[in-house]
Amino acid sequence: MGSPPSCFLKQITIIEIKIFMILFISCILYETNICSSDSLDTLTVPPRSNSTNILSSLETLPLDGYFSFENNHHAARDFGNMYHFLPSAVLHPKSVPDISTTIRHIFQMGSASELTVAARGRAHSLQGQAQAHQGIVISMESLQALEMQVHTGEMPYVEVSGGELWINILHETLKHGLAPKSWTDYLHLTVGGTLSNAGISGQAFRHGPQIDNIYQLEVVTGKGEVVTCSEKQNNDLFHAVLGGLGQFGIITRARISLELAPKMARVKWIRVLYSEFSIFSKDQEHLISSENTFDYVEGFVIINRTGLLNNWGSSFSPKDPLQAREFSSDGRTLYCLEMVKYFNPDETKTMNQITENLLSKLSYIPSTLFHSEVSYAEFLDRVHVSEKKLQAKGLWEVPHPWLNLLIPKSTISDFAKEVFGNIVMETSNGPILIYPVNQSKWNNKTSLVTPDEDVFYLVAFLSSAVPYSTGTDGLEHILTKNKRILDFCATAQLGMKQYLPHYNTREEWQTHFGSLWKVFLQRKSAYDPWAILAPGQRIFQKAIRTS
Ligand SMILES: Cc1cc2nc3c(=O)[nH]c(=O)nc-3n(C[C@H](O)[C@H](O)[C@H](O)COP(=O)(O)OP(=O)(O)OC[C@H]3O[C@@H](n4cnc5c(N)ncnc54)[C@H](O)[C@@H]3O)c2cc1C
């Protein structure tokens, strides 16, 4: 074998030095205390003065879309309505190259620039995760490069833009008698936003979360490279990005697996009540472990309510109205098991037999069986109905100090005893969802962190705060209650993991990721070495050259 020519060696040495420098700075980045310790409930950070040169260099980029440098206050807001970071610019991309050109430009500036980039779906984040203080926010909904393409056949799928809304995917795929398998409770969220977290709902016990129902992604990394990835191609990036909190790349396209949707698309929607948590959870666990079971299983906690049908809407009717009228909750804490069976109208009889059979194995309070029948699309889009009502009353844009937890099956009764029996016994500030899922249906190669048990529960405290209130419905009170719940989980060592996680220190992030932390760091160093992406998650901080 001959030796390489000396100019080639020189080139390799320069590349090696460059890579070393990047890795070196990445190491500093990991050793710095990367997270701010702000403990403010509502955090508004004014813009820092950014280098005019750097910003004006953005204007020289050849783009199909455009940057806006003014009137960007909307990009400093999210659903949580507690954190407000004003960006320096908002990119409205019209093509994938718009995104890669912008990120490559910032990547090439290296540590000379403090610019970071946050993809913004619908900003349904809770604590500023889709914001970029003095950085660039990319409005993913502007990315209209890709029409939705539905592919029928043995393994049907739909190919969509990362900024597409799940509600649009539902309507488009239904035209072909198909639909995604796994959903979120609310569909006015973007594909890129939910795939950066997980996308969990009542179908996840059977199909896994949305991140486990993806065939392929197109991603723009933190170096500005456009990479196609899947289980078979660039699989490390594929797994990194799914549940990766936006840390490794911007999802510009996704290929989502589909299943046959009910032809005339109807659903039987059932709710039953329990007064004992142990019986309620036993029944939930039974349903998610059965073969021929419901298509959706969720549940929620009812705290201090007197009217049984509060907020259930007029569409639910009791199976036995006489008995139901006699049932009184007396302000007790109750647990509602919610189940759904999809069916075609010509299969109504069979569907009724199946549901009767499934219900006969459950131990709910007999007088509390309520049911409803709605279209498949109506069921999936159910939260939008509440959204419209709340918006009309001006109650959608209040602070939302939500807390989402994943609790192992082995500790869920300890959790329920202390949390439902003590911490939130008197009042709840919004719905509290609780339902189990099967770990075996979830892919453990993604960046999502879950408890290490075969079955774990999602518990979601979906609180709304009354602005400026100092009472039990105020932000401070709810945040204190959330902290009590988190402290209890830690002290009692319940093995809890946060979903849609939010932490203030690197130690907390490290604990959250546990053994995955090392892999997470390696992937960050490989795909976003300058820590440009998703700064609002507050996991990493961009290393800046100060002299
Ligand atoms: C009413 C309501 C109901 C919800 N119900 C559920 C539910 O049932 N199940 C569930 O799992 N979640 C649920 N969520 C949470 C939801 O999944 C998250 O809010 C998620 O962030 C999606 O919102 P978004 O599309 O607006 O993303 P954003 O909030 O805009 O972004 C979320 C994160 O992803 C990053 N990001 C956004 N787009 C991309 C992209 N294309 N590529 C890479 N990174 C990106 C952002 O930078 C940010 O860090 C609900 C939220 C709300 C408000």
Automatic annotation (TrEMBL):
<dbReference type="Pfam" id="PF01565">
    <property type="entry name" value="FAD_binding_4"/>
</dbReference>
<keyword id="KW-0560">Oxidoreductase</keyword>
<dbReference type="InterPro" id="IPR006094">
    <property type="entry name" value="Oxid_FAD_bind_N"/>
</dbReference>
<dbReference type="InterPro" id="IPR050432">
    <property type="entry name" value="FAD-linked_Oxidoreductases_BP"/>
</dbReference>
<dbReference type="InterPro" id="IPR036318">
    <property type="entry name" value="FAD-bd_PCMH-like_sf"/>
</dbReference>
<dbReference type="InterPro" id="IPR016167">
    <property type="entry name" value="FAD-bd_PCMH_sub1"/>
</dbReference>
<protein>
    <recommendedName>
        <fullName>cytokinin dehydrogenase</fullName>
        <ecNumber>1.5.99.12</ecNumber>
    </recommendedName>
</protein>
<dbReference type="GO" id="GO:0019139">
    <property type="term" value="F:cytokinin dehydrogenase activity"/>
</dbReference>
<dbReference type="InterPro" id="IPR016170">
    <property type="entry name" value="Cytok_DH_C_sf"/>
</dbReference>
<dbReference type="InterPro" id="IPR016166">
    <property type="entry name" value="FAD-bd_PCMH"/>
</dbReference>
<keyword id="KW-0274">FAD</keyword>
<keyword id="KW-0732">Signal</keyword>
<dbReference type="Pfam" id="PF09265">
    <property type="entry name" value="Cytokin-bind"/>
</dbReference>
<dbReference type="GO" id="GO:0009690">
    <property type="term" value="P:cytokinin metabolic process"/>
</dbReference>
<keyword id="KW-0325">Glycoprotein</keyword>
<dbReference type="InterPro" id="IPR016169">
    <property type="entry name" value="FAD-bd_PCMH_sub2"/>
</dbReference>
<dbReference type="InterPro" id="IPR016164">
    <property type="entry name" value="FAD-linked_Oxase-like_C"/>
</dbReference>
<comment type="similarity">
    <text>Belongs to the oxygen-dependent FAD-linked oxidoreductase family.</text>
</comment>
<keyword id="KW-0285">Flavoprotein</keyword>
<feature type="domain" description="FAD-binding PCMH-type">
    <location>
        <begin position="83"/>
        <end position="261"/>
    </location>
</feature>
<dbReference type="InterPro" id="IPR015345">
    <property type="entry name" value="Cytokinin_DH_FAD/cytokin-bd"/>
</dbReference>
<dbReference type="GO" id="GO:0071949">
    <property type="term" value="F:FAD binding"/>
</dbReference>
